Amino acid sequence: MSDWNDALNGALQAAEMLGFEVIPLSVRKLPAIRSPHQAGHGCRGECGQLGHGIHDASADPDRIRAMFNMVRHATGYGIACGRPPWHLIGLDLDRKNGIDGVWELRKLAAHHRIPLPRTVIIATPSGGYHAWWTGPAGVKVPNRAGHMARGVDVRGSGGYLVGPGSRSTRGLYTLASDPDNVTVQPVPDKLLQLMTAGKDRPARRPVTARSGRAASGGQLLVGLVTFVLDSGQGQRNDRLFWAACKAFEHAAAGRLDADAAENALMQAAAAVGLPDREAEATVRSARGDVLGAAK
Fold first, then answer.
1. pLDDT digits 0-9 by tens, 151-188
2. Helix (H) or strand (E) holding 174
3. Beta strand 171-172 with 167-168: parallel, antiparallel or unpaired?
């Protein structure tokens, strides 16, 4: 229960002191409240029930306690990005598989002559860091993996950041910046431009939930592919990550073939317009988190 208490207290503090909207997370960093719907639904909470992931996020202490009381297995909390008044943006700087996201960000900033002011930094249990920024109202920052540089993932509208004090399968998320100066700085203009820049991609043949490799995975995989295909703008990367984690959990239990799941989800990601590099980084990240090693 200590992890649950720590997560709840951290979530309440983030909401009460900083005005962030939060949700409880499981030890796998996924929304802890199970959906009341079957996979592929389009409900974002209009039904009035909890279990809609980031759409449940709230800064109301009573609602936060109610959410955590539903999921006593929760060990962390997620902070919604893109919500007013802060319009939070996160940079996830991975340090694994020979890639150092911190160094890649520094090189990127130097190349574009972008000053990087000190902001809130969270240390992740895998050795990486999350850098927090505030964004301008009216600008939607997409969730992207490896778009700006290797090992540099963006968490924006529709995404969330794991809050300090949360525990995952790999360990504890902690505050790495000055605890006496927890001030989230505005994102530098040039860095924001890189976050939101478009990327051309070749046309891909559309896929349906029951076509090709998706169908070969049975109903489990069909449902997960449908979930990705139903993604709205700003949801695609998070939905792909969630579906991939679920697929690899099924693979670990012997219910799906991991390679077939990865191929089907990559096709679905292409169909909803995610760049190949971005989708591949997201799916491989999920595979590593669930199965313990990248393919």
1. 898 999 888 999 999 999 999 999 998 888 778 999 99
2. strand 174-175
3. antiparallel
Task: Report the Cα–Cα distance between both ends of the chain, in Å, rounded.
Answer: 34
Query: Tokens 């959410």 appear where?
Result: 67
- Print burial letters for 22-58: b (CB count within 10 Å at least 16), e (below 16): bbbbbbbbbbbbeeeeebeeeeeeeeeebbbbbbbbb
Query: What torsion do the CA atoms of 274, 276, 277, 281 make, to the nearest 10 degrees?
Result: 70
> CB of 33 within 8 A of CB of 73?
no
229, 209 contact by CB (below 8 A): yes
pLDDT tens digit string along 97-151? 788 999 999 999 999 999 998 999 999 998 999 999 999 998 989 888 788 888 8
Burial class (CB in 10 A: 0-12, 13-18, 19+), 215: middle
**Residue listed under structure tokens 């979530």:** 11
